[in-house]
């Protein structure tokens, strides 16, 4: 289904490596690969979910796409004027022009807005810098009012300060602030995890409606599998900086293939009375990314680990149509 759709962003062999800080005379520490050789395509108008435990590299991947971090290697090919442009190799002018087309909504709605700026000021500055509203202050004010109405807030709220709003209202303001820039892609980095459950549902429904109305594409990062399932058309599961499984949302939840995905899904509560699922408890902790395991990154915790898994890293390959998995269990021995 997705293959016939237009690719908006093509991530090619993206790697993000950090060199940890060291004190004077301290020996050089090994680098940390937060994202390791990730390749995937995101289609226009879809919600692409990324799920995994804390520290798996999902937020780092999102920050690389929005260019808050500069990847060590790889390409970020973004569709603009029917042309795929590498976001990492643009001249300053094109890079600036494309910035507004990729927006981000952060996890913490309290830290996302400057407390000394009114909502209007917070919206207005990036709009003015990018020439949105054709340089007219009145037009920008009207656009801000419309954006607030779209997220079910009163237009007069633009003259208030962030502390006058609840967490849920602030996150709606952040979504409106991203949308007013008329983006093609919004990176949603755990946008509901800091909110109460009842407010989470409201915001998720609002985001789905806004996507239907505007056609914007979401790159939706979360650790809560139920939230990701509800929001996403396709989902990638990340473990220790690698994508270990990628499939349509329905297929992934109905037939998880990778042992890590199976363990994650076994921990999701079932909303059916008296129905019980067998929980797969993983042994050990997530290994340190400073000293990742050889071969398959999941092998020290995998109940199906074979000798081959300890020396050979499995490649993410299509096993069924549109369902990719990185695991030797599904490959013939070469
Ligand atoms: Fe487990 Fe081997 Fe598959 Fe890795 S490659 S998930 S260790 S079976």
Provide a descriptive summary of the structure in words:
The protein has 334 residues and is of the alpha/beta class. The chain has two domains: 2-21 and 30-101 and 182-330, P-loop containing nucleotide triphosphate hydrolases (Rossmann fold), CATH 3.40.50; 113-181, no CATH class. Helix content is 29%, strand content 23%. The chain has ten helices and twelve strands. The protein has helices at 58-65, 92-99, 119-129, 137-150, 167-179, 197-214, 225-231, 249-254, 259-266, 307-311, and strands at 7-18, 32-43, 47-51, 73-80, 83-86, 102-105, 185-189, 217-222, 234-239, 242-248, 317-320, 323-325. The strands form two sheets. Strands 6-7-8-3-9-10-12-11 form an eight-stranded mixed sheet, sandwiched between helices. Strands 2-1-4-5 form a four-stranded antiparallel sheet, with helices on one face. The two termini are 31 Å apart. The model has no long low-confidence stretch (mean pLDDT 91). It binds iron/sulfur cluster. Residues 258-259, 296, 298-299, 302, 304-306, 309, 314, 327-329 line the site of iron/sulfur cluster. Iron/sulfur cluster is lined by residues 258-259, 296, 298-299, 302, 304-306, 309, 314, 327-329.
The overall pLDDT, averaged over residues, is 91
The number of E-state strands comes to 12
Q: Can you tell me the CATH topology of the largest domain?
A: Rossmann fold
Shape: globular
| CATH hierarchy: architecture of the largest domain | 3-Layer(aba) Sandwich
**Helix/strand order, N-terminal first:** EEEHEEHEHHHEHEHEEHHHEE
Would you state the CATH class of the largest domain?
Alpha Beta
Radius of gyration equals: 21 Å
Query: Total number of helical segments?
Result: 10
CATH superfamily of the largest domain: P-loop containing nucleotide triphosphate hydrolases
What can be said about the biggest beta sheet?
Answer: 8 strands, mixed
Q: Report the end-to-end length measured between terminal Cα atoms.
A: 31 Å
Strand order of the largest sheet: 6-7-8-3-9-10-12-11
Q: Structurally, how many domains make up the residues?
A: 2
Percent helix among the residues? 25-40%
List bound small molecules. iron/sulfur cluster
- DSSP strand content: 15-25%
Identify low-pLDDT runs: none
Q: Helix- and strand-based class?
A: alpha/beta
């Amino acid at each position: 289904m997705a293959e016939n759709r237009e690719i908006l962003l093509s991530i090619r062999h993206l790697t993000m490596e950090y060199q940890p800080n060291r004190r004077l005379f301290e020996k050089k520490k090994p680098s940390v690969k937060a994202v390791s050789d990730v390749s995937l395509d995101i289609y226009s108008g879809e919600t692409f979910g990324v799920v995994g435990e804390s520290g798996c590299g999902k937020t780092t991947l999102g920050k690389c796409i929005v260019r808050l971090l500069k990847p060590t290697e790889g390409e970020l090919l973004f569709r603009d004027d029917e042309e795929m442009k590498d976001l990492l190799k643009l001249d300053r002018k094109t890079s600036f022009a494309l910035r507004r087309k990729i927006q981000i909504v952060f996890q913490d709605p309290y830290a996302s807005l400057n407390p000394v700026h009114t909502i209007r000021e917070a919206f207005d500055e990036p709009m003015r810098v990018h020439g949105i509203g054709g340089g007219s202050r009145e037009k920008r004010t009207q656009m801000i009012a419309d954006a607030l109405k779209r997220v079910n807030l009163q237009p007069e709220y633009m003259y208030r300060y962030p502390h006058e709003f609840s967490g849920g209202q602030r996150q709606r303001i952040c979504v409106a602030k991203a949308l007013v820039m008329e983006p093609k892609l919004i990176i949603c980095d755990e946008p509901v995890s800091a909110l109460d459950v009842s407010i989470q549902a409201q915001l998720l429904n609002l985001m789905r409606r806004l996507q239907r109305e505007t056609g914007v594409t979401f790159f939706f990062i979360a650790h809560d599998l139920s939230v990701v399932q509800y929001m996403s058309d396709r989902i990638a599961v990340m473990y220790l900086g690698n994508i270990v499984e990628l499939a349509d949302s329905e297929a992934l939840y109905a037939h998880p293939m990778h042992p890590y995905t199976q363990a994650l899904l076994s921990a999701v509560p079932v909303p059916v009375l008296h129905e019980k699922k067998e929980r797969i408890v993983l042994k050990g902790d997530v290994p340190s990314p400073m000293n990742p395991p050889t071969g398959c990154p999941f092998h020290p915790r995998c109940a199906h680990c074979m000798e081959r898994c300890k020396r050979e890293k499995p490649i993410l390959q299509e096993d069924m149509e549109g369902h990719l998995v990185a695991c030797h269990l599904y490959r013939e021995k070469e």
